[in-house]
Amino acid sequence: MSLLCCSISGCIFSEDEPDNFELNVELSASSGVIVEKYVSGDLESINNPKIEFNFSSTKTEIQTIGVDINDGSEPIELDGESNSTIIVEFTSHGKYNVSVYAINSGNTKQSLTIPIIIDLRIEWIENATLDPKVLNFNPIPNNGGEHPQLIEIKSTVTNPGILEDFNGGQSVQFSWTITDELGDTCQKNNAVVNDGEFEVWETIHFNTYLVHDLSVVYEEGQDPISIDQILLLTYES
Predict the structure, then answer these.
(1) Parallel/antiparallel/unpaired status of strands 212-220 and 94-104
(2) Above pLDDT 70, what percent of the chain?
(3) Do both 97 and 171 map to the same domain?
(4) What is the pLDDT of the chain when averaged over all its residues?
(5) Dist. CA 67–CA 111, nearest whole Å
(6) Torsion, CA 219, CA 221, CA 227, CA 233, rounded to 10
(7) Structure pTM?
């Protein structure tokens, strides 16, 4: 198998065996990121990456082209005479070994295995709350493949200044916690955010084998707080 990477046309995978046609497949990308956006705990939008597999460089009379992402779902097959590309939407994070194949008019089949990495990014916003919601995240890949390398977290808690309050606002005591599905606290960080200021917690978590909760626990104070969090579940450290 040979791999040629070009800055404009993407990546081309090819395989050539004696007495068989050469299978060339060009990818629009070899990785992607699912982006989920939450507001006040509710899922507002989700953006799934789409990768195009282009078979047009394969020089033979193709009858069938196919892509199998090997996650238990059915392969995508199209008529090779009228189609030269297949677009696959990835809806779950994971490290995929994708099988691509083509069958020519002589019923000869050629296939390749191409690695594809799909990360997950969660963007979380809560405004003016006294009772922050819990961010639940599942690092276990649905395709049964390798687990992520790590989880990066950046959480910002803001105590907005109250202009109408001439006496000034109050400080708020709170804590960040990461808890696994067994109820064990994996990480915790206590903080105080003063009126009109913000506090940031950045951390890396390496347990990618259990479902977890990321919580901002309001402990003492009267002022509402706002929360802006980004969680990246990545397969490449």
Answers:
(1) unpaired
(2) 89
(3) no
(4) 91
(5) 9
(6) -20
(7) 0.88
- Residue ranges making up the domain that contains 86: 2-35+48-118
Q: Worst-scoring range by mean pLDDT, 98-102, 135-139, 168-172, 204-208?
A: 168-172
CATH number at residue 84: 2.60.40.10
Phi, psi of 72 (to 5 degrees): 100, -10
SS (H, E, C) the chain: CEEEEECCCEEEEEECCCCCCCEEEEECCCEEEEEEEEECCEEEEEECCEEEEECCCCCCCEEEEEEECCCCCCCEEEECCCCCEEEEECCCCEEEEEEEEEEECCCCEEEEEEEEEEEEEEEEEEEEECCCCCEEECCCCCCCCCCCCEEEEEEEEECCCCCCCCCCCCCEEEEEEEEECCCCEEEEEEEEECCCCEEEEEEEECCCCCCEEEEEEEEECCCCEEEEEEEEEECCC
Query: Same domain, yes or no, for 140 and 206?
Result: yes
CA distances in angstroms from 187 to 84, 139, 153, 205, 225, listed in the order given: 50, 16, 12, 8, 21
Residue at which a domain ends, from 61, 87, 118: 118
